[in-house]
UniProtKB/TrEMBL annotation, chain B:
Residues 96-298 form the ABC transmembrane type-1 domain. It is found in: Cell membrane. It is a multi-pass membrane protein. CDD domains: TM_PBP2. This is ABC transporter permease. Keywords: Cell membrane, Membrane, Transmembrane, Transmembrane helix, Transport. It comes from the Bacteria. Gene3D superfamilies: MetI-like (1.10.3720.10). InterPro entries: BPD_transp_1_N, MetI-like, MetI-like_sf. The chain crosses the membrane at residues 12-30, 96-120, 132-152, 172-194, 229-255, 275-301. It comes from Nesterenkonia massiliensis.
Automatic annotation (TrEMBL), chain C:
The chain crosses the membrane at residues 45-62, 110-134, 154-180, 228-257, 277-299. Residues 110-295 form the ABC transmembrane type-1 domain. This is ABC transporter permease. Keywords: Cell membrane, Membrane, Transmembrane, Transmembrane helix, Transport. Residues 1-23 are annotated as: Disordered. It is a multi-pass membrane protein. It is found in: Cell membrane.
Length: 541, 308, 310
């Protein structure tokens, strides 16, 4: 008896201290409301602080960041030559005020004269020349170096014959000229990518020190240094020379290893924003967050590729049948609670080049699929490949079940592997069946949605697809003026949807959840799945 | 006694060398190029890849790689870096306190609760409390650690709000839920082990004699029974404490604790041999030291055991 | 004293029993077993646990007896339904009948738990006995070897091994778990043996000139089995859980296999929204583990000469 009494008392004490804590929080809130008595959605004075979910970045050097965790932060710390208007996906000025080209091959950028880094170092044309040369130099092992492979002189630098790109020229202090080996119309779009941000000369002296506390020229300035696995904090840079400075006064990226934990922290009010709700939580968002959530279409594309180097998949009828036997919407509803948009195209729907209703074989049609599959003599056993530990198991299994039921396939096996091993099997062409891969647009261009994955011999072309007509169309489109290029990219896309080297599955929808402090209307996510933090309005302190 | 300890300490050297070799070999044996996987779906250029492979000695044969690693450790105290360029020592320094705190809190929890439950079971042998404790320890063992973690998070973190759901920003309080999760299985095992041993001990003659002399039952259990029954329990707690340092992988990731277990898992997936070896070596050292202490404790608990 | 005849060898056991005031006559091995069986039959916990285990084993061997549905008949349009008359346990994420899936899951989970526990038990009995009995350098070698393996977290070993193996079935997963989980039980066994080896009757048997094997088999093994048997039954439960953890980490049993571990790891994210997905496999796992543990306890009590009830 006495034991249970003690337990009760302990419980009361705990509960009481919890009450005290909440009471304190409540007082703080009241004070804040009194300050901005006008309206609930009014922004707090100064912009307020937001805490945002993040994963531990691999790197915080622009040329070396190839994943979202690092890029999320770098986008706020740096500004490139150009920026994007996230409503229209048009390129707008960044450090460069204007740019010009005659032939899509030689590009001239006129830089703004009042740009500087957060340490006071001025930004000139030479800054970009130095940065780009440094990124490409193999000694510096920057993972994004090959984004520069179209710049004249790239091979010479890679082979360590020289350490300066021939195609880069600082014509005068504020004029930068870049000469490309091949005409490339989407070049300005490409320049919006993280790899093309400028870096101060301090960085080249000690890149390791720089990475722990990057000095940028962006809307935010890092506060202190990168606390590994804990957080990265940045204050708004009040001397930002560009347009549209950031709204929140301070951004704190809290680093989580488990996304479910982050979800519960937002729910408990310990974290303001989680940009990507895990699929298993989607059914309860309504109950957990009410109006404090927002769903965005993104350009993040998921597909099932087919190894065209295997005889089984060389017949296009087999590929069409496999595609028609998948009820994409049913899989999306059942596994993702509707949070994907079925793909009927290769170019993400948000881009100006996107087209509608051109995928004959993306419609669910089990009868026709079965007939086609049987007539074409499709394999009676399939092995589906995917990388493990990344949440693909459920939907891959669902698709496999549909194939079994709709195509009369006797057995479907699964191979899930660590990513490194998975990629190695791809390189060695040892994949024996449909495989999962994805593609996210680093910059918003139809070219980037297709050229790296489907042109002959490209590094991300895992299906082994090779089509002369397609290759020619892409090449032509890259060289054409913007108007004509749209049409050419669209023709190229139609070839892909007819030949079907990959079965388009869906474009991801990201659902963001947030605390009461955030104005829902100010949230916006771009094509690369980045929430535009600089635009967020905080309504409570 | 001193000679015994010195001999045991000398035996540690081959243990540490060989187990690091095993670990290094295991990580080396994972197929696939870790550098290739760094860049994701869009591969990096061959030039960069070559350079990175060279930087991390990945093109060397296995024994050369291992030798270079050991050489670095002994000549320059250089434990290598992650593929992100962070020194392994930094990581260990940052994460070790987290894991040690978690393990100690969990050990305390399982020792206290396990022993109390075990004693209760013996006092009330075959009565309701005994069965209740037994059934609930079975349940704790049978519930997978993942489920326990989430249940605790939901009930005590979210619904009741007594403890932080995750992270270690709030100091020791934030370690309670993860420690309970980590300790749950072992608490049940300790309770059962102790019950078994105590029940045996209660039937030995000296305990019977003590009872016959008219000592109170609880005093008999405490003075005579426990002392003998503790040997397997202490062995288990010791072994478990050592393995906890490595076995906290799941708990640390559920509760978002930036400890060593979480790092090891991440480094295995990323095939960062040096990180894995660095952390595992540390665990081996802990392990052997704790086991030595356990063996010494035997002597205190059971004077019949002599160290030769 | 110097005449190690068969009777002399058995005396210590009976001496211990006589000292405890419970054995009245010299017991030969056969009657010991018969005694054990007699006391087991009277133990209600033994009956209950044996019954549960029989049902579980039947489920593992003949799942068709319990359900007529095909576990692979899955339809997305009926996914994640809560329990109903039609689907007793509801349906899972893929839209399969969950009752059928749980029944069919018994085989792999029990197989893994059983094979691993048995393998580990054999290894630790032998190594623990030898190390604890002989001590000195034998103990040092075995103990340090145990340390080495124990120092490698089993998840690390499993991640690597199972990644290298092209297909991961019950056999592969069980083998890897055995390789990396035996040290705990071995240490436990060694501890008990050390304490059993320093008792008076062992000293007496040694003095009588009994052989090592005889002493180990007759005197030490029966007196040190207790904690190990206790742990071994619990261990089955741990292993069934470990199979789930490995699956969660992506290196456990592979789809399209059906196991409780796979079900638990699939259900984990839906803990709050669809608790039935977690509850049913959990119930079966718990029941199985409970049965193994209770059975182990009962057998242990019956076998241990000291704890025989009046």
């Amino acid at each position: 008896m006495s034991i249970s009494k003690n337990f009760t008392r302990a419980g009361v004490v705990l509960a009481a201290s919890a009450l005290v804590l909440t009471a304190c929080g409540g007082n703080g809130d009241n004070g804040g409301d009194a300050g901005t008595a006008e309206g609930e959605s009014a922004a707090v004075a100064g912009g307020g602080t937001i805490s945002v979910y993040n994963c531990e970045p691999q790197h915080l050097v622009p040329g070396n960041s190839t994943e979202v965790c690092g890029s999320k932060v770098l986008q706020q710390l740096f500004t490139g030559l150009v920026e994007l208007d996230y409503d229209t996906y048009e390129v707008i000025p960044g450090v460069a005020e204007s740019w010009d080209t005659e032939d899509s091959q030689t590009w001239t950028f006129t830089l703004g004269e009042d740009w500087a880094f957060q340490n006071g170092e001025e930004i000139t044309a030479q800054t970009f020349v130095d940065t780009f040369n440094w990124v490409v130099n193999p000694e510096n092992t920057q993972q994004s170096a090959n984004f520069f492979d179209n710049v004249v002189g790239y091979d010479a630098v890679i082979n360590e014959e020289t350490d300066e790109l021939e195609g880069l020229r600082a014509v005068d202090e504020y004029t930068l000229e870049i000469e490309l080996a091949e005409p490339f119309a989407p070049f300005p779009q490409m320049l919006t990518y993280t790899a093309f941000y400028p870096m101060p000369s301090e960085a080249f002296e000690d890149i390791e020190a720089f990475e722990q506390a990057p000095i940028g020229n962006g809307r935010y300035q890092i506060d202190g240094s990168w606390e590994h696995d804990v957080q990265i904090a940045a204050d708004r840079w009040e001397d930002f020379p560009g347009e549209n400075p950031g709204l929140p006064e301070r951004i704190e990226w809290r680093i989580y290893s488990d996304i479910d934990t982050a979800y519960m922290d937002v729910q408990a009010g310990n974290l303001d924003i989680l940009d990507q709700t895990p699929p298993n939580r989607l059914t309860q968002i309504e109950a957990d967050f009410g109006e404090n959530s927002a769903t965005f279409d993104t350009g993040s594309f998921t597909y099932l590729g087919l190894p065209l180097y295997q005889e089984d998949f060389q017949d296009e009828d087999v590929r069409h049948a496999l595609s028609m036997a998948i009820d994409r919407q049913a899989v999306i509803d059942a596994i993702f609670d509707g949070a994907q948009t079925p793909a009927t195209n290769i170019i993400p729907p948000m881009l100006p080049e996107a087209q509608d209703g051109i995928c004959e074989w993306c419609e669910y049609n089990p009868e026709e699929a079965a007939d086609l599959y049987e007539a074409a003599g499709g394999p009676s056993e399939l092995t589906v490949w995917f990388n493990s530990g990344a949440g693909h198991d459920q939907w891959v299994e669902a698709v496999a079940n549909q194939w079994r039921q709709n195509l009369g396939i006797e057995e479907v096996k699964f191979e899930s592997l660590e990513f490194a091993q998975y990629l190695e099997l791809h390189d060695n062409e040892e994949i024996t069946g449909p495989f999962r891969l994805g593609w996210t647009l680093s910059y918003p261009s139809a070219q980037y949605a297709m050229e790296p994955i489907y042109t002959t011999g490209q590094s991300s072309n895992y299906t082994g697809f090779s089509n002369e007509e397609f290759d020619a169309l892409i090449e032509e489109a890259n060289a054409a003026d913007p108007e004509t290029s749209i049409e050419l990219y669209q023709q190229a896309e139609e070839i892909l949807l007819n030949e079907m080297p990959v079965l388009p599955m869906w474009f991801s929808n990201y659902t963001t959840v947030h605390s009461d402090r955030i104005d829902n209307g100010s949230l916006l996510m771009d094509q690369g799945t980045f929430l535009r933090l600089e635009q967020i309005v905080v309504t409570e302190d | 006694m001193t000679r015994y300890i010195i001999r045991r300490l000398l035996q540690f050297i081959p243990v540490i060398l060989i187990s690091t070799l095993i670990v290094y070999a295991l990580v080396f044996a994972i197929p696939g190029d870790p550098i290739r996987a760094l860049a994701g779906d869009r591969p990096m250029s061959d030039a960069v890849r070559e350079q990175l492979r060279q930087q991390y000695n990945l093109d060397d044969p296995f024994f050369i790689q291992y030798f270079k690693y050991i050489w670095g450790v002994f000549t320059a105290a250089d434990f290598g870096t992650t593929f992100q360029g962070r020194p392994v020592l930094d990581i260990i320094q940052q994460r070790l306190p987290v894991t040690v705190t978690l393990a100690l809190v969990a050990t305390a929890i399982q020792a206290v609760f396990g022993v109390i439950a075990g004693i209760l079971c013996t006092i009330y042998k075959d009565r309701f409390i005994d069965r209740l404790v037994q059934v609930s320890t079975v349940m704790m063992v049978a519930l997978p650690i993942i489920a326990i973690g989430f249940l605790l998070q939901l009930v005590f973190g979210l619904n009741l709000g007594w403890f932080p759901i995750a992270g270690n920003r709030e100091g020791l309080v934030s370690y309670l839920l993860p420690a309970f999760t980590l300790a749950s299985v072992s608490t049940g095992i300790i309770a059962r082990l102790l019950r078994g041993e105590l029940v045996d001990a209660m039937q030995s003659d000296y305990v019977r004699t003590a009872t016959a002399k008219g000592l109170k039952r609880t005093r008999v259990i405490g003075r005579h029974g426990l002392r003998n029954a503790m040997i397997p329990v202490v062995t288990f707690i010791g072994a478990d404490l050592a393995s906890m340092l490595g076995g906290s992988i799941v708990v640390e990731s559920i509760f978002n604790l930036p400890g060593l277990g979480e790092q090891v898992y991440r480094s295995i997936s990323g095939q960062e041999g040096t990180v894995v070896v660095g952390i595992v070596t540390l665990m081996v050292i802990f392990f052997v030291v704790i086991n030595l202490l356990v063996d010494l404790l035997y002597g205190l608990l059971d004077p019949r055991i002599r160290y030769e | 004293m110097s005449n190690p005849n068969p009777e002399a060898r058995t005396t210590p056991v009976s001496t211990a029993a006589t000292e405890a005031g419970e054995g009245q006559k010299k017991t030969a091995e056969a009657s010991l077993l018969a005694d054990a069986w007699r006391s087991l039959r009277k133990n209600p916990w033994f009956i209950i646990s044996a019954a549960i285990l029989l049902v579980m084993l039947a489920m593992a061997i003949f799942p068709q007896l319990f359900t007529s549905e095909d576990p692979r008949a899955c339809f997305l349009e009926r996914n994640r339904q809560t329990p109903s008359a039609e689907h007793w346990f509801g349906t899972d994420i893929q839209g399969c009948d969950y009752y059928t899936r749980v029944i069919y899951g018994a085989r792999n989970s029990i197989a893994v738990g059983f094979i691993v526990s048995l393998g580990v038990l054999v290894i630790s009995l032998i190594l623990g006995l030898v190390a604890g009995y002989f001590g000195k350098w034998v103990d040092a070698v075995i103990s340090r070897f145990t340390d080495m393996v124990f120092a490698v977290p089993y998840i690390l070993g499993a991640l690597v091994f199972l990644n290298v193996i092209p297909t991961r079935g019950v056999r592969e997963v069980a083998m890897v778990l055995i390789i990396f989980t035996w040290p705990t039980m071995t240490r436990l066994m060694r501890g008990s043996v050390i304490s059993a080896a320093s008792t008076e009757y062992v000293t007496a048997a040694r003095a009588l000139g009994a052989g090592h094997v005889t002493i180990m088999r007759r005197h030490i093994l029966p007196n040190s089995l207790g904690p190990v048997i206790g742990y071994a039954t619990v261990f089955i439960g741990i292993i069934i859980g470990a199979e789930a953890t490995l699956t969660y980490l992506g290196v456990g049993l592979q789809l399209p296999a059906i196991s409780w571990g796979l079900q638990l790891s699939d259900a984990k994210p839906y803990l709050t929204s669809f608790p039935h997905l977690l509850v049913f496999p959990l119930l079966f796992v718990s029941l199985t583990v409970f049965a193994f543990m209770t059975l182990g306890d009962a057998v242990r009590d019956a076998l241990d000469p000291k704890s025989k009830k009046k």
